[in-house]
Automatic annotation (TrEMBL):
This is Pilus assembly protein HicB. One of its GO terms (biological process) is regulation of DNA-templated transcription. Signal peptide: none annotated. Gene3D superfamilies: Met repressor-like. It comes from Oenococcus oeni.
């Protein structure tokens, strides 16, 4: 019989967690994480939390397929509030509530359900 039974699993998953985890890592990795956290203007704890949240997040089809994709402004319909991506229409939000610029390109930052968050790409001079 396995050491972990359904009953053990239920006890582990049903108890409220404290939010504290004792973690042993290689000292070189710890140093690298410390440098990356400082470069991101975060504490080590905040930086590790950010990485874990990003990795553990349940990615949707839209997250996996569309985040990072460039969308021409002409595919955004500001009249009905929809944007066409790969033949499918989604609701959208534009970062900082900017108006749609039909001549610009936009990048998909996030997909939350059927709502895509877009950022206008600025042209480099």
């Amino acid at each position: 019989m396995s050491r972990w039974s359904y009953r053990n699993w239920r006890q582990l998953t049903s108890t409220k967690k404290s939010g504290n985890i004792a973690l042993r890592i290689d000292p070189e990795l710890h140093e690298k994480i410390t440098r990356l956290a400082a470069a991101d203007n975060r504490s080590v704890n905040s930086y590790i939390t950010k990485i874990l949240e990003k990795d553990v997040k349940n990615n949707s089809f839209e997250d996996r397929q569309f985040v990072g994709t460039l969308i021409p402004g002409k595919r955004i319909n500001d009249k009905n509030g929809l944007v066409e991506v790969s033949g499918i229409y989604y609701r959208y939000l534009i970062e900082d509530n900017q108006k749609v610029d039909k001549t610009a390109n936009y990048v998909i930052l996030e997909a939350n359900g059927n709502v895509l968050t877009l950022r206008k790409m600025e042209m480099a001079n």
